[in-house]
């Protein structure tokens, strides 16, 4: 792939070597871009983050932290963090979590998380506004390969949450989180729908009560 420093197609998968991938993401024009590398292809996502994407990202993150706090589940949440298997794969999910015994496994001061040194996150979430088909397809395959335990896709346009658990080198749909026991996906979906017309504070307060009732 020639002339990587000048122009690389964005929001699509492009054939590239690992060295070409590194050269591309070091280009200053991609400083704020999200980047992925898988099976000899790179993907640079440059789409502006819309209000709806940012809102759903913030809401889901808050809901998970509140649930974990109430249930005494140790959790470390990361936004747009990069994970790398040198020469093979790199991902940068919208949200990711280390849970339980892994909550404090990544030391402060770590830059890109080296997956040859540390485990993959337990839960990965992609907020899909313009990238739904890719999040359901190629990215799901990446997270299967990386042995992520659970993968959610928040479908911004359809106000939906699609959740998968990773099993037998593949994945299957779930209606209740396995890594966050007791967290029903439909409860989050309904709260997400409410957040379209009610501010986050009010919806989170309602969720707080629901989470307490299920204790």
If you consult CATH, what is the topology of the largest domain?
tt1808, chain A
Poorly predicted runs are: none
Q: Could you give the order of the helices and strands?
A: EHEEHEEEEEEHHEEEHH
Question: What's the total number of strands?
Answer: 12
Helix content: 25-40%
First-last Cα distance = 55 Å
Strand percentage: 25-35%
Class based on secondary structure composition and strand pairing: alpha+beta
CATH top level assignment of the largest domain: Alpha Beta
The chain-level mean pLDDT equals: 94
Number of self-contained structural domains: 2
CATH architecture of the largest domain: Alpha-Beta Complex
Largest sheet: 6 strands, mixed
Q: Which of globular, elongated, flat, extended, rod-shaped describes the shape? A: globular
Widest β-sheet, arrangement of strands: 4-7-9-10-11-12
What does this 3D model show about the protein?
This protein is of the alpha+beta class and 215 residues long. The protein has two domains: 8-46, no CATH class; 50-213, tt1808, chain A. Helices cover 30% and strands 26% of the residues. It has six helices and twelve strands. The chain has helices at residues 18-25, 51-70, 132-136, 138-145, 185-194, 200-213; strands at residues 13-15, 34-38, 41-45, 75-79, 83-85, 89-91, 95-99, 113-114, 123-128, 150-155, 160-167, 170-173. The strands form three sheets. A six-stranded mixed sheet has the order 4-7-9-10-11-12. A three-stranded antiparallel sheet has the order 1-3-2, with helices on one face. The termini are far apart.
Write a short abstract of this structure:
With 215 residues, the chain is of the alpha+beta class.
């Amino acid at each position: 792939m020639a002339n990587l420093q000048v122009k690389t197609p964005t929001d699509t998968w492009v054939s590239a070597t690992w060295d070409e991938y590194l050269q591309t993401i070091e280009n200053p024009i991609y400083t704020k871009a999200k980047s992925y590398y898988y099976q000899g292809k790179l993907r640079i996502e440059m789409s502006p983050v819309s209000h709806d994407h940012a809102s759903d990202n913030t809401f889901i993150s808050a809901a998970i932290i509140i649930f974990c706090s109430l249930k005494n589940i140790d959790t470390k949440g990361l936004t747009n963090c990069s994970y790398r298997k040198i020469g093979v794969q790199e991902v940068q999910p919208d949200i990711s979590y280390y849970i339980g015994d892994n909550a404090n496994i990544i030391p402060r001061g770590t830059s890109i998380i080296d997956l040859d040194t540390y485990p993959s996150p337990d839960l990965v979430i992609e907020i899909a506004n313009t990238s739904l088909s890719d999040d359901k397809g190629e990215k799901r395959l990446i997270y299967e390969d990386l042995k992520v335990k659970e993968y959610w896709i928040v479908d911004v346009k359809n106000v939906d949450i699609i959740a998968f658990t990773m099993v037998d080198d593949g994945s299957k749909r779930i209606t209740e989180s396995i890594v966050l026991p007791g967290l029903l996906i439909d409860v989050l979906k309904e709260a997400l729908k409410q957040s379209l017309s009610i501010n986050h504070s009010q919806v989170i307060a309602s969720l707080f009560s629901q989470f307490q009732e299920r204790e």
